[in-house]
Amino acid sequence: LYNPDHTTQGRLIRHRACELRDVCQFHINAELDMDFELLCQQVTEARKQRGDDPRASLPDYVFTDQAVAAAAAAA
Question: Is 11 in contact with 5 (CB distance < 8 Å)?
Fold first, then answer.
């Protein structure tokens, strides 16, 4: 294991990682609108009904095709 739970240092690293996860989750829950996911689903459904291409609104640095992503990574 990368950070074994049978050493003091490994337990400390795991504890800090869990603490960081909990703090991040707290901030996400405190700041994020609870209806945000529902709003995203509604936007997705509206785009499907209009026949929009979901890739049309992506920024240039987001790749949806594996071949394009591999070529960009190699460049």
Answer: yes
Closest CA relative to residue 8, chosen from 19, 16, 24: 16
C-alpha 45/C-alpha 34 separation (Å) is 19
Mean pLDDT over each residue of the chain, to the nearest integer: 85
Every domain of the chain and the residues it spans:
8-74
Read off the pTM. Answer: 0.47
Residue 63: name the closest of 53, 73, 48 by CA: 73
Neighbouring CB atoms inside 10 A of 24's CB total 10
Tokens representing 2? 């990368």
